[in-house]
Write a structure and sequence with these properties.
Layout lengths: L3 E7 L2 E6 L2 E7 H8 L12 H24 L6 H10 L4 H13 L5 H14 L4 H10 L4 H9 L3 H18 L5 H14 L4 H15 L2 H6 L1
Antiparallel strand pairs: 1-2, 2-3
Helix pairs in contact: 1-2, 2-4, 3-4, 5-6, 5-7, 8-9, 8-10, 9-10
Length: 218
């Protein structure tokens, strides 16, 4: 327990000076919420014991509200929410409690997010390798990524790859046959398809279109 000696406003932060303790830096909106007013003063606070309790309670509620606002536009992973709350100044405990509440109420579910992301990206002709990289950047655990991959619609993935190959072949219609094949396969590989998947998609698209490079190569 320490005596509060001074309270200073520093932009959107409140800095609480305490006797024989490190200064406490708190978001201004959280401090005001804890005291239900906008003009805090050190003279109003005898020591920091109840102050810490009130601030912690206010921050927990504020962190959950901030997370819900962040989720309003689209679904997010737990790591994305954690990074956002940390970036805007919430402390670790408040962040952890907010995420735990969101997970317990199934508002946030990384497994569901991974499956939905995999399905949406597959439909946009993005291959498994790139989808995997994207989910890693979003902080989704490896076991959840693997489960989403196992549940992926391989038939839809193959159809999307062929459709991309068709579009690429049409765009390259003026190129030489060998260049069309090379560029089409490279396009699919850049989108995250394996070389084998890219070759198969090219072969199917070329066969369907009756492209003479297919007959030359196959």
């Amino acid at each position: 327990m320490s005596r509060v000696t001074d309270i200073q406003i520093d932009g959107r932060w409140v800095v609480i000076e305490r006797e024989n303790a490190e200064p406490l830096r708190v978001r201004k909106d959280i401090f005001n919420r804890a005291f239900n007013r906008a003009s805090p003063a050190a003279d109003d606070i005898e020591d920091d014991s109840q102050l810490l309790i009130d601030i912690a309670s206010a921050e927990k509620a504020s962190a959950l509200e901030a997370a819900l606002r962040y989720l309003a536009s689209r679904a997010r992973t737990t790591r994305e929410i954690e990074a956002h709350l940390n970036r805007v100044g919430y402390h670790e405990e408040a962040i952890a409690l907010a995420i735990d509440r969101l997970m317990r109420t199934d508002i946030v579910n990384d497994a569901r997010y991974a499956e939905e992301w995999t399905r949406a990206r597959t439909n946009r002709a993005i291959g498994a390798s790139r989808i995997r990289q994207e989910m890693r950047r979003k902080g989704i655990p490896e076991d959840i990524i693997k489960a989403a991959e196992l549940n992926a619609d391989t038939h839809q993935a193959a159809n999307a790859a062929v459709e991309l190959a068709r579009k690429t072949l049409r765009r390259l219609s003026s190129d030489e046959p060998s260049a069309r094949k090379r560029k089409t396969i490279q396009t699919l590989a850049r989108r995250g398809y394996s070389w084998e998947q890219a070759e198969e998609a090219y072969a199917n698209a070329a066969r369907e279109s009756g492209a003479h490079e297919f007959h030359e190569e196959f």
